[in-house]
Structure formats: structure tokens, C-alpha cells
Design goal:
The protein has 428 residues and is of the alpha/beta class. Helix content is 35%, strand content 20%. It folds into two domains: 147 residues, Nucleotidyltransferase, domain 5; 183 residues, Nucleotidyltransferase, domain 5. It starts with a strand and ends with a helix. The structure holds adenosine-5'-diphosphate. Adenosine-5'-diphosphate binds next to α10 and α12.
């Protein structure tokens, strides 16, 4: 084994998984371990969480599935990280290596697969069918398949991941946790677009929102930290990462959210344009001679702060370029901040007030500058940022002063834990 970029590399020929039983007091231990799976088209993220204390036993990422050079970055808690280089033609092959790694005598975390009580799957789109997490059966699979229509890029890999797990762990209960489910509480007047109503009836074109699992985790955690019941709070949760969305949560229910029929709507993001005049779309298509999929690519992958700045989709690069005097980088950040401010302001209005504004995800958790810039627009609501408390990264905390009428908080998101909690709740 050699060491590379913090990972011990295991070459294909070195992999010889042996199970871990001998090390664990000789045998079967009934545990509360939940395996959380999040499948992309060529990736598989996983976390094994011990729910007796919500600690992560191991986590990792299988990359380049079905592509040459596939590998798994496996991180067992308390042991060296391992990079496993092995061909993985499909998600089942990846999952086989992941599960072998989890029970391996050297790099594993559990004695045998019997110690996985259930699997929680992240599923991107649950349409109008799923307003909560569910135990997966064939009926549920059919429902997820029906949503492919509105999530053609995301639901198919999620389905592949579930099928692979079902084949490898046929007796383990599986739960689907939908990214759209938390937003299903939105009232009709938030989710219906001002288009001919028949389009909603025919194609289910409406606002669904996304990042629901993150908004839910952050909302519950905020209530816990404030020592209040979620049902008595008005919250605005700001998930500001490469993808960014905001939700207005009143009495535990989402009343509005910035992402729409797809994640393209709302804030400007790393590479997504967010809200624009829809008339621009046919205009660009005509002028640039673009097909629907080409224009979709332009709006989703070449716009946002990347499109405006021409520098990068990564906010750190943008901040660096701005510091070096790049005007378009500065402009892109200003436009991003403006969008966040407009959504927070309008959500405070639709909820008739707000008790707490919460920042999460890469930028929200780490950029004191972004929080400072955004919060200075809300003195009229009584927001008073504590600049010292705000000058920290990635830590759960209140960043407003004692006197601030609205609490401002940083709550690092934990979608995997939310998925594991939902899963445990359903299978217990
Ligand atoms: P996603 O899951 O959508 O990829 P993340 O929540 O991981 O997004 O957030 C990634 C974004 O957060 C990147 O654009 C990155 O630049 C930004 N980010 C992370 N750390 C910082 C920081 N210290 N300052 C500013 N931006 C940051």
C-alpha cells in the first residue's frame, strides 16, 4: 500500500476483503447502523451512521462509475483514509466494494453486513406523490420511476442505487428520502405558476423546490438550538452552496422556496442563472441558434457567478478575484447578494415577520463577508449582527447580538444525518 494525498492507495490486486467478525466479540451484534446512499450518474456517496449516538462510522465516495479510472475514497472513522482503485462498471459493482470495505478486517467498521439495520436513499424528485420519506416497496419504485419525467437526470441514478442495494442486501429495509418532500407543504398559491392551468394538470408543471432535506435538518436543528418548538417559529433558511436556495418555514411548514419546477429558478448560483425574464430563453435560442438542450446547458452550467465573472463558479475564487480588483467578479457577488436579500425580504413579508435567518452550506457556513453583506439590509427588521461571533467558519452558532430582534444563525447542514433519522424513524 502507498500513501497519496492523505489516502492509502489500494491497487486492484491488493484488495482482498476479509470480514471483520473475529474482531467484534465473536459474532452477531444487533445494532442501529444506517447506511445512507446518494447516487449520481457516475458517483455513489455513502455514510454509515451509528444511530445510537449519531456518529459516523465510515463515509466515502465512489467516483467514475462506468468510466475508466473508477475509484473509491473510503474514510473509516479513526483509521487511515483509503483510496481503492478498481474497475466499477456499474453502481452494483461499486456498492459491492463499498460493503466489502465496511466489513473488512483492516479498513472496516462493522463485523458483518448483519450490522446494517436499514439503508436510507436520497431520491431527488418525489413529485406530488411523496410528501414524506417512505419505506421502499415496488409501488414506491413505480412512483419514483414516474417522476423520471420531471427529473430525467436525477431519478434514474437514484433508482440504480436502490436496485443495486436491493440485490446485495435483499433482507434489509430500504427507505427513500426525497429532496422535494419537505416542500410539499407549500400552499397552492406558492406552487402554481401563472401559466395556463392546463399545463399544471397535463404535465405537473409547478414549483417543487429542492434541497428539502437540508432545509428540514437546519429548521429542526435551529428550533433545538433556540429551545423552541418548530411549530411556533418563523424561519428563513438560506442554503448557499454551489447550488443555492432559500425557504420560508412557518410553524414547521414550508410556505415558499426559491427553487422551482427545477433547481434553475431562484437565486443566481455557481453556474445557474436563477430568476431571469423567460422571454430571454427563446430570444437566445433564435440568436445563437441553440436547441432546447443547448440553451438548458447554457442556463444551468454557464451562467450564474461563473457567467457574469468569467472567472469561476467557486465563490472562493470569486472573492479572490474581487480582492485583486476584478470588476466582473465583484459584480457577480453583488448580484448574488442582491438576490439573497430580495428573497429574505419577500419571505419575511409573506410570513409577516421572521424569528431567525439561518445560513448553511459552503458559502453560508464559511463566508463571514457574505453574511455581513446580506444582513446589513435587514436593520429595518431589527437584525443586529455580532461581528465577532460572525467571524468564524463552519461552526454551529448564533451570530446576532443579544439585542437583535431577529436571530441570525449558522447551522452547518447534515443531509446524511437527516436521511438516517428519517430511515430509522420508519423502520424502527
Ligand atoms: P454543493 O453541495 O452545492 O456543491 P457546497 O455546499 O459544498 O455546495 O458549497 C460549495 C461552495 O461553497 C463553493 O462555491 C465554495 O466556494 C463555497 N465556499 C466554501 N468555503 C468557502 C469560504 N470559506 N468562503 C467563501 N465560499 C466558500
Amino acid at each position: 500500500m502507498i500513501f497519496y494525498q492523505n489516502y492509502n492507495i489500494m491497487k486492484q490486486e491488493e484488495i482482498n476483503f476479509k470480514d471483520n467478525k473475529d474482531k467484534f466479540l465473536g459474532g452477531y451484534i444487533k445494532t442501529m447502523n444506517i447506511l445512507v446512499i446518494n447516487c449520481g450518474s457516475s458517483s455513489l456517496k455513502y455514510q454509515l451512521i451509528d444511530m445510537s449516538n449519531e456518529s459516523v462510522l465510515a463515509k466515502g465516495l465512489a467516483e467514475r462509475i462506468g468510466i475508466e479510472g473508477s475509484r473509491i475514497k473510503h474514510e473509516p472513522t479513526g483509521k487511515d483514509k483509503v483510496l481503492i482503485e478498481k474497475d466499477m462498471p456499474d453502481h452494483k459493482a461499486a456498492l459491492e466494494i463499498v460493503t466489502n470495505a465496511l466489513v473488512d478486517g483492516e479498513i472496516g467498521s462493522i463485523a458483518s453486513m448483519d450490522e446494517i439495520s436499514a439503508v436510507g436513499h436520497r431520491v431527488v424528485h418525489g413529485g406530488e406523490k411523496f410528501s414524506a420519506s417512505v419505506i421502499i416497496d415496488e409501488n414506491v419504485m413505480k412512483g419514483i420511476e414516474e417522476c423520471i419525467n420531471i427529473a430525467p437526470l436525477h431519478n434514474p441514478p437514484n433508482i440504480m442505487g436502490i436496485r443495486a442495494c436491493q440485490e446485495l442486501m435483499p433482507n434489509v429495509p430500504m427507505v427513500a428520502v426525497f429532496d422535494t418532500a419537505f416542500h410539499q407543504t407549500m400552499p397552492e398559491d406558492s406552487y402554481i405558476y401563472a401559466l395556463p392551468y392546463e399545463l399544471y394538470e397535463k404535465y405537473k408543471i409547478r414549483r417543487y423546490g429542492a434541497h428539502g432535506t437540508s432545509h428540514k435538518y437546519v429548521a429542526y436543528r435551529t428550533a433545538e438550538l433556540l429551545g423552541k418548538d418548530l411549530s411556533e417559529l418563523k424561519l428563513i433558511t438560506c442554503h448557499l452552496g454551489n447550488g443555492a436556495s432559500i425557504a420560508a418555514i412557518k410553524n414547521g411548514k414550508v410556505v415558499d422556496t426559491s427553487m422551482g419546477f427545477t433547481p434553475l429558478e431562484g437565486l443566481i448560483m455557481g453556474t445557474r442563472c436563477g430568476d431571469i425574464d423567460p422571454a430571454i430563453v427563446p430570444f437566445i435560442m433564435e440568436k445563437e441558434n441553440l436547441t432546447p438542450s443547448e440553451v438548458s446547458d447554457l442556463l444551468n452550467k454557464k451562467s450564474g457567478v461563473l457567467g457574469i465573472s468569467g472567472v469561476s463558479s467557486d465563490f472562493r475564487d470569486i472573492e479572490d478575484a474581487m480582492a485583486a480588483g476584478n470588476h466582473r467578479a465583484k459584480l457577480s457577488l453583488e448580484i448574488f447578494n442582491n438576490a439573497v436579500v430580495k428573497y429574505i425580504g419577500s419571505y419575511a413579508a409573506i410570513m409577516d415577520g421572521v424569528d431567525a435567518i439561518i445560513f448553511t452550506a459552503g458559502l453560508g457556513e464559511n463566508s463571514k463577508e457574505a453574511r455581513e453583506e446580506i444582513c446589513k439590509y435587514f436593520t429595518y427588521l431589527g437584525v443586529e449582527l455580532d461581528l465577532e461571533a460572525n467571524d468564524m467558519r463552519g461552526k454551529e452558532r448564533v451570530v446576532s447580538t443579544e439585542n437583535s430582534k431577529v436571530k441570525v444563525m449558522v447551522v452547518p447542514t447534515n443531509e446524511e444525518l437527516m436521511i438516517a433519522r428519517d430511515t430509522l424513524g420508519l423502520v424502527k
